[in-house]
Write a structure and sequence with these properties.
single chain, mainly alpha, Cytochrome Bc1 Complex, Chain D, domain 2, 4 helices, elongated
Amino acid sequence: MGKATLSAWGRRLFLIALLLAMTGAVTSAQLRFMRNMFTSPVVQPQVAPRVPVEDTIPVDGTQILDKISSIDLPNPRPNTPEVLQEGAWLYGVYCAVCHGADGQGDGQIAEHFRRMPSMPSIQNRTDGLIYAIIREGGANMPAFADTMSVDERWALVHFIRTFRTPE
């Protein structure tokens, strides 16, 4: 073996030693952004959880009811001309394309669906159930929980009540 070979082996050993030393230094330093899961600030098992951060949503807050649990919900909005006008506008924007302008289930895209309920046919349902259907959607109907506010959905329920069965 010549001097060049020893020199190459020496450089390799030096680099390996340097790499091991750096790895050990980083591991032992446990810099704040490099913490492992055990020593990081977490809630350990069987320990009381921390106080929630301000403005978080409580787990024991208002419960969102499903359709069956919503049946007996009363409509909190008064049945005023302003609320009916708001409901009529919302119906024109969100509902008329399927259910038709007169609520007969004959909207522009109704022919593409197996069945499109007419508004008079749902008059025997409670306000809470109609509200839940608007919020969660139906068989082919999209959910409007993310699109309309709670007050808008209740205004729409008042407007849907204005449709009557043709006599």
